[in-house]
Design a protein that fits this description.
Rossmann fold; 9 helices; binds S-adenosylmethionine; alpha/beta; globular
Length: 260
């Protein structure tokens, strides 16, 4: 009897959480997703860096360094960092031989945090930041040797359109590198990750950022994202060549590469 009650209570809590998650997501998906995503990142911009490193236990440094190694292996002179946010990957890319790095993002508050970091590091001659939508870039065709997106493609309103636009501004033979969350598929990481992303992440994210929707949106958007070979198929369909992916940390995130 007690067990049945416990089970009943647990399923109510579970269903309530799922419904709330769905409501948050529905509020963020849809045709004006872009504006809602922009507002969400504007709201959390000042806490973003702390939350990012704290909630990932610092693993994001390791993932970004993997991207840096790939950048170095292609030795690009010009780099576009799409959905640059507070600019961590653009700043890291300054360790390559690039002579021009441009970071773009829809959230001006995220960019403002990044601009301060770039100025503090004396990198403002190398890195410029500007507000742009990845689905409607202002750059000419064939401008950059390499484009990269870290934890950004998941937020695009129209994934194919965003990727197509990125391809347009990459030079022929240039490279796209995407770093994005995926979901671990094997025991025990799959179960640990599910617990973490459904419970710990939204709770701490809400307390620290004061924005309930942002850290409920994150795991839900990861669940919906077409990861692994589903994503490389989309890259193929947009016209990228020699696409491949590599899972990191048991599949918590993945790096995707494609050539124009
Ligand atoms: C999770 S943050 C990642 C930021 C940064 N790349 C990093 O690795 O920390 C996602 C960023 O994508 C930006 N974003 C979402 N949709 C975008 C779009 N359509 N065009 C440009 N930026 C976008 C958001 O404003 C946010 O700054």
């Amino acid at each position: 009897m007690l067990n049945t009650k416990k089970h009943y209570l647990r399923s109510i809590i579970y269903n309530k959480t799922m419904i709330e998650n769905q409501e948050h997501l529905d509020k963020l998906e849809g045709k004006d997703k872009r504006e809602k995503v922009e507002n969400m990142f504007d709201n959390i911009a000042n806490n973003y860096d702390f939350l990012n490193h704290f909630l990932s236990f610092g693993i994001d440094y390791y993932w970004r360094n993997k991207v840096l190694n790939i950048i170095k292996s292609h030795d690009p002179k010009s780099i576009l960092d799409i959905a640059t946010g507070t600019g961590d990957l653009a700043i890291l890319a300054s360790k390559s031989n690039a002579e021009r790095i441009v970071g773009i993002d829809i959230s001006q508050n995220m960019l403002n945090v990044g601009i301060k970091k770039i100025e503090k590091k004396g990198l403002d001659n190398l890195i410029t930041m500007q507000q742009e939508d990845s689905e409607d870039l202002s750059f000419d065709d064939n401008t950059f040797d390499l484009a990269m997106v870290a934890f950004g493609v998941r937020n695009f309103e129209n994934l194919e359109k965003g990727l197509g636009e990125i391809k347009r501004v990459i030079k022929p033979g240039g490279i796209l590198i995407v770093l994005e969350f995926s979901q671990p598929r094997s025991f025990p990481m799959k179960q640990l990750y599910a617990f973490y992303s459904n419970n710990i992440l939204p709770t701490f994210g809400k307390i620290i950022s004061n924005d309930a929707s942002a850290y409920t949106y994150l795991p839900e958007s990861v669940k919906r994202f077409p990861a692994f070979s589903d994503f490389t198929k989309i890259m193929d369909s947009v016209g990228f060549k020699n696409t491949s992916y590599k899972s990191l940390t048991s599949g918590i995130s993945s790096i995707y590469i494609g050539e124009k």
